[in-house]
Amino acid sequence: MIKKIPYPWFVRKDLDGFFGLAIDNLIQLMLIVALTNRVAGIPNEVVFGYILPGAAISIIAGNIFYSIQARKLAMRTGRDDVTALPYGINTVSLFAYIFFVMAPVYHETKNPDLAWKVGLVACFFSGVIETAGAFVGDWLRRITPRAALLSTLAGIAITFISMEFAFQIFAKPGLALIPAAIILFYYMSHVRLPGGIPGGLFAIGVGTAIAWALNLSGMSGYFDPDWSKGISATIHPPIPVIGSVFSLISSEYVWRYMSVIIPMGLFNVVGSLQNLESAEAAGDRYETKPSLLANGIGSIIASFFGSCFPTTIYIGHPGWKALGAKTGYSILNGIFIAFICFTGTMDAVLRLIPLEAGVGILLWIGIIIAAQAFQETPKHHALAVAIGLFPSLASWGLNMVESGLRAAKTTLYSTVTSGAFQGILPITGAIALSQGFIFTSMILSAMSVYVIEKEYKKASLWAFTGAAMSFFGIIHAYSLTPAGIGNRFGIAAATEFAIAYTAVALFLWLLYVRTKK
Hints:
Elements: H1 14-40, H2 44-77, E1 87-89, H3 91-109, H4 112-133, H5 137-143, H6 146-171, H7 173-189, H8 199-216, H9 242-247, H10 252-256, H11 258-281, H12 288-304, E2 311-313, H13 317-323, H14 328-343, H15 346-352, H16 359-375, H17 382-387, H18 390-407, H19 412-417, H20 427-434, H21 437-452, H22 456-471, E3 479-481, E4 484-486, H23 495-516
Antiparallel strand pairs: 1-2, 3-4
């Protein structure tokens, strides 16, 4: 019989997890403030008065739920090393809804209020899809090899998490390299610092001290906060906008962009399953249904209080667990995010503590996740994990190309149509591989696992899945316009890929029949 043990709400290591998760959440909030206004024309009054408080309601509710969930698991199993699932705004959905739902509505109608409200409905439907996914999540988890789930996370961790922050660290080595080194070497060696001070807290303290020393010495380009506006706090309580959600459900603008909303909802379900698998590989097995239900209900609540952005289980549980965080880091994060959203003090926080002081924690999280994909899968599945990295690399590399072209005052569309990439880079291949890269990664990795195991029937079924997703445009299909790369959903959206996957599926089926005989 397992002896139930008391499980503390907070431990010292929760501070490390809190700083990392809070910085990650802050980045999402910064993106919301910057992009909703610049891309979709939504005024600051709506952003600070509705969107951020609505997001905060969902974040704090989810963080409390996952903390209680972790405590129950610890007390039920008699373990003292259980870590709560991290939770926050889904980054991919954030970009998708701003650029492919809210921005098009705004540019067509010049009505920022309508763009915001269509975003609310998009968030609501995403929550509905996540809620429905709770009832089929266990089945999806059973039929998908662990390598297929973890390799996708590893690709995202290496590219969209680690690389960006690695560049940020080496762009300002005088400020960021020392705290990053402290974080990495502290967690690699598990050395005890004087007084038992958490490594993350120590690193952020050192980074902040360096930043202010550089600032006071007159050196520019490192940390130059703008104090012209001063520090002010204005209370922004959450305001229900349920009527705005339901009034637009039948709007033509909502149904026009269902081709974006539905795949994003499915993406959130799959991403949550991947993160649950990642947590189980790290030692904490959480039930699928209540976890996905919390995601779906959280996103619905967010939409009812003015946020356009779904919340979900975050990537990074193994990293927080490696830091020694348990349940308190999640609650601290929820309280902190709620405070800065309800008071409008987010900008003041970033003017006191430089982002570079803590990005080493996020770099460490990415490293841990990438390492886990190889460590927690059978050794002979390493090839399948490696194959699953390529779609994420393609998506990230394409993002780098687009950023460089924008900096050069040109566009991907004009560069591709002019033939400038001819003989230099097969850019259309990169675009095709990047479209629906989460699903492509899973399909390629799952096919590889079953081929390695000589289970050709299962490999064939995954190839047929790739054919179906290509045919309807969930993967590989795209439209390149002067405004950028867009999704192309519909019948025969990526016919060439559908035919190719079907041919592969038939070949694998023949191998299955041959080996069966």
